[in-house]
Amino acid sequence: MKKTITTLVMAGAVTSAAVLGAAYSGLVNVGADDPHFPAVHAFLAMARERSIAVRANDIEVPDLQDEALIRTGAGNYNAMCIGCHLAPGVEKTELSQALYPSPPNLATSGISGDPAAAFWTIKHGIKASGMPAWGKSMADEYIWGIVAFLDQLPKLGPQQYNALVASSSGHQHGGGESEMHNHEGQHGNHVPERAGHHAMGGSEAHHPAPGNPVPKTHTHRDGKEHVHGN
């Protein structure tokens, strides 16, 4: 028995040393364009799902059919989420194609029948996935608004989505709102603007004179401008 335990300890030490050596040597490719091995992906997915399930177990879910809550969520989702998680009529944005793991298309999956897990995920985010912890700047009531809206999202077509966003108060969650990356008009889904507030994050719109279309330009964090042709 003692010999078996010693053998197992030594094997564990050798395996750990090999893993550390491979990591330190730079053999592990951390590039987002190099997918995990299937076994690693399955392990990480299991760990993520179990972690969220355990922590969301005692969360009390409010009335997700509340129309005011849904409208609030529509404005915030449109301002903060569609770049990664898409919307009816919106496909393959720059972010949704570039992130790994690939963000789920919430326009089709919604909350997947688990509002408590959706709330926890939005509030706390997920490490090393690109999913922010919106609870650092957003009060719980606004997060529940997004959850309530997500519960309705798979049932909406592009026109219904746009109408619901237009009826909302846009990007608002009690302070700390920032200008979001503007995807308006780039992906085939134009969302009507509210007076004084732009649906895609509050940035000032530029309206070209009739007959003189202007290419759409946005600026990345590194200061470089990206121009989309017409």
UniProtKB/TrEMBL annotation:
The keyword Glycoprotein does not apply. Pfam families: Cytochrome_CBB3. Residues 68-154 form the Cytochrome c domain. Keywords: Heme, Iron, Metal-binding, Signal. It comes from the Bacteria. SUPFAM superfamilies: Cytochrome c. PROSITE patterns: CYTC. Residues 167-230 are annotated as: Disordered. Residues 174-196, 220-230 have a biased composition (Basic and acidic residues). This is Cytochrome c. InterPro entries: Cyt_c-like_dom, Cyt_c-like_dom_sf. Residues 1-21 form the signal peptide.
